[in-house]
Design goal:
- By secondary structure, the protein is mostly beta strands.
């Protein structure tokens, strides 16, 4: 382990300036100017000498990656706040402009083939051969004009309206700008005359509704432009005595436009028992159109079989409930509790215009275990990112049938021996794959509580969710005897190979779509506050344990798996191909307030 080095050195500068001016001649008016910058420079060196096992091909590897990032922000806006009509009518008006410019450069170079085992940061090993360098350049701009008006009458009726006009350089000039309006209203029912005789335990009752349109432009830069990727040394073309590097065109959709979500909600809020209990119940409905995603397209229709495009519309509906309670409030003992619970159901409504009448779905969710393989699908009527798999037949003990055996006694060993013929056409192929489970939970919630006794305190935070599934890609690739045969060296294999007996990887079996429901305690804290004394600082000592426990039936390292690609335009939700496990952290700290 001491032979391999992976070291980073970074420098970051954050700065901002805010100025405001309120003219005396116009009461309630204030002008604000804000500007900020975020600059980061750094370098990361990776060093592995030829004598380590995984360098038997490169015979020594040194990689140097640099980064330069700059983000600049400008905001300028006017606020006007007044109360009129004997303080019965209130208004708050805001209008302004924001501009953000992001620029980044990530050059990288590699040096291979050396015998040196000494590592020096920033210095390539002696006698190493420099390979072709790479450079990833990014730049985007986002500009917004916005306005907002908030009005209330007697602090009883409230109305808020806003409007944004956003422009993003990530879209073509024809689709760069989009408008996003929103409106909301609230009614404090408890202030009405018919509730004057309400019970004393009912402090406030409020009804609110809202509707708004929001946009998404998180797709990366230059996606609407034709671009080229420079090939590796392995893809160079021989020309005489030289090898010429090649450049291949990337897939492109020139008509990319904003993804837009129209959402509406209605909620009822209540404060009870001298504000010791606060609760909210809310229902929401959201429809997203022109969904931005990378999808698999028919061969020959573009320069690649995967392209980023606007693919259709989806609907999300659900309920949310929250409760905050002060259960105990005394001089020696206190106890507070916060609880929230929510449901969410999403369905794909359309996949855009499809001239091919046989078109039924769009493949997505790339997986390990083969080039171009996908495990998820966009299909009308199904959840977003639904897993798309075969139904694996089971034996009497509910174990999946082993491949390579003529289970149906038809004289052949094929997919029909282990998978269900869903469409009943007498053969098993990709048309028998079905949508099965989704990575997003249908029910999720959390609980936070604090118990205090004199100067001691105990805090806990728990979360849970159910209805979510994970594709165990790591297990699907490794749980077959084929892995032993295809590896060039001896390696450890999971014991489940003997239990399952698969000869070939069953990448598309629903056996590897696993229930990932869980209950997790995120943090547990014990603290002690020293008795306060006049004119002396308050001191609090604490001990915190993070990632305390997780209760789940999922076989992998972590049941909570989001988009493992890290790129919203290249979704791989709920696909476990060796996600790094969460660390369990112990923290000891001291807070002092002067």
């Amino acid at each position: 382990a001491d032979l391999v080095h992976d070291e980073s050195r970074d420098f970051r500068l954050l700065g901002h300036l805010r100025a405001s001016y309120a003219p005396r001649s116009i009461p309630g008016l204030r002008a604000t100017l804000f500007t900020g910058t975020d600059v980061t420079t750094g370098q990361r060196d990776f060093f592995a000498p030829a004598i380590v096992r995984f360098q038997y091909v490169n015979q020594g590897e040194f990689r140097r990656a640099r980064q330069e990032r700059t983000s600049r922000l400008w905001e300028s806006y006017l606020n006007y706040d007044r109360r009129l009509a004997d303080n019965r009518f209130g208004l708050s008006l805001t209008g302004g402009y924001t501009y953000q410019h992001f620029w980044a450069d990530y050059p990288e170079e590699a040096f291979l083939g050396f015998e040196d085992t000494n590592f020096t940061f920033g210095q390539p090993p002696v006698n190493s051969q420099r390979q072709l360098g790479r450079e990833n350049f990014q730049e985007n701009r986002l500009a917004s004009f916005f306005g907002r008006g908030a009005f209330d009458w007697k602090h009883r009726y409230f109305l808020t309206a806003s409007f944004r006009l956003d422009g993003s350089s990530r879209f073509s000039p024809d689709n760069r700008w989009a408008a996003f309006p929103a409106i909301s209203a609230a009614w404090r029912i408890s202030e009405e005359g018919f509730l004057k005789g309400r019970p004393k335990w009912l402090n406030e009752l409020k009804l609110r509704v809202g509707w708004g349109l929001t946009g998404n432009q998180e797709i990366g830069d230059y996606q609407y432009l034709p671009t080229y990727t420079v090939g590796e040394q392995e893809t160079s073309y021989p020309f005489g005595d030289e090898y010429i590097l090649t450049a291949r065109p990337n897939a492109v959709s020139t008509n990319l436009k904003w993804e837009q979500t129209a959402s509406g909600n209605i909620a009822l809020e209540a404060r009870l028992f001298d504000d010791r209990l606060r609760t909210t119940i809310e229902a929401y409905h959201a429809t997203t159109r022109d969904l931005l995603s990378r999808v698999v397209v028919p061969a020959g229709s573009n320069l690649s079989d995967v392209v980023l495009t606007n693919v259709g519309s989806i609907r999300n509906t659900g309920l949310e409930f929250s409760l905050d309670a002060q259960l105990l409030k005394g001089k020696a003992v206190s106890w507070t509790l916060g609880f929230n619970l929510a449901t969410n159901h999403n369905r794909i409504l359309s996949l855009g215009p499809t001239p091919d009448l046989s078109f039924q779905a769009i493949s997505t969710g790339n997986i390990s275990g083969g080039t171009g393989n996908t495990i998820q699908v966009y299909q009308v009527g199904q959840p977003l990112h639904a897993f798309y798999v075969f139904q694996h037949l089971r034996d009497g003990a509910q174990n999946p049938l082993v491949d390579g055996v003529d289970h149906n006694n038809d004289g052949r060993t094929d997919l029909s021996d282990i998978y269900a013929d869903v469409n009943g056409d007498g053969t098993v192929n990709d048309r028998d794959r079905v949508a099965y489970g989704q990575p997003a939970p249908t029910l999720f919630g959390g609980l936070q509580t604090r118990l205090g006794f004199r100067s001691f305190g105990l805090q806990a935070s728990l979360r849970g969710q159910t209805g979510n599934y994970v594709y165990n890609n790591l297990a699907a690739v490794s749980e077959s005897y084929d892995r032993i045969l295809r590896e060039p060296v001896l390696l450890n294999v999971p014991a489940s190979i003997q239990e399952l007996g698969f000869r070939e990887p069953q990448l598309f079996s629903n056996y590897y779509i696993e229930d990932a429901s869980f209950l997790r305690m995120d943090a547990l804290t014990v603290d002690y506050t020293l008795p306060s004394q006049p004119e002396k600082p308050s001191v609090r000592c604490y001990l915190t344990l993070q990632n305390v426990f997780t209760i789940t039936s999922y076989r992998g390292l972590d049941p909570e798996i989001g988009n493992v690609s890290g790129n919203p335009s290249d979704p791989r939700f709920g696909i476990d191909d060796l996600v790094f496990p969460r660390a369990r952290t112990f923290l000891v700290g001291l807070n002092s307030t002067f």
